[in-house]
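User: Some background: our group keeps a shared notebook of sequences we're curious about, and every so often someone picks one and asks for a predicted structure to add to the entry. Today it's my turn. The entry only has the sequence so far, pasted here. Could you supply the structure so I can complete it?
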Amino acid sequence: MKQEKLTHFTLISYASTAIPLAMLGLPLYIYLPTFYAQSVGMSVTIVGLILFLSRLTDVFTDPIVGIYNDRFQSRYGRRKPFMLLGSLILTGSFYALIHPPEDHMQLWLLIFSMLVYLGWSIVSIPYLAWSAEITSDYHEKTRLSAARELSTILGVLAALLIPYLYGVSASADESLSLLYSAFLVALFLMLPLTLMGIKESSVQPAKHVTFREIRIVWQKIPSLSRLQSAFTLNSLANALPATLFLFFVELVLEEESKTGPLLLLYFASGILGLPFWTMLAKKAGKQKSWLASMVLASAAFLFVPFLGSGDLVLFGLITFVSGLSLGADMALPSSIQADVVQKIENQKV
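Assistant: Of course. Here's the predicted structure to add to the notebook entry:
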């Protein structure tokens, strides 16, 4: 593993793939359900149920992808072939998803949404795991994670802006087609930069691990269980406002036309806050910095229940403050996770 300070080229090369992945995430969660409900004519309930079932398959596929990727060996490394394969599955499946046939639409949505999530896992799991192998330095891992998450925010901002710039934001099917084309261009440019710009370290394939050995690891590394608990609670806390955001703006604030600008404000605020959290993590520690960001976001959201129709400025302020925490929330947890993984490897439990 590299011990020296990572070059800007390494940071850019690694982080670049996060841009197309983020660009595809927004249409998948925002435009796709609307497309199948309005343009295709399926029930909103059925669409939601199918997408929920598809997403649920990650519980089974993610560990399998992780296990096989850790054991995989080739002349090109173990991360790169998986990322390339996953990108092919992802691009083909999403194209099929936005071009459904006239018959058997529910089955079509189920099959290809499952394949999209599978392709996503095959790309993202090796991609995220790779960061722990590029450097073993405590602070460089934070820089690497910060660069990746900055690219993620840039990808989300691009996905938000492109439909508005082309004047198709009101049409789910046109937005999906446009964003899919933009995703293909970004993937074609960015993925090769990651695959060819970074050399994989020589790592021994992972051995078979039993459930007993996993239990021993959890007992000997208490920070692992604490981190898992923090991940779970934080993910739940993030999922609730993310799910209700559009409904809140439309039904409570009655400002549906301001949804896009508010989302832009949120992610732009995240970019502004990212350098601060990276600096704070270096001085105060990653755990304390992550905790501080949670407290800041929670304090901001305390005022949301008191808002009503027309309180756009106040909600914009809350969006900005909570967005500042986004930088920490995206960069620090994965860096802490890489530290824990390295600790486990060093102790050889």
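Suggested note for the entry: Residues 51 and 213 are 35 Å apart (CA to CA). Residues 209-349 form one domain.
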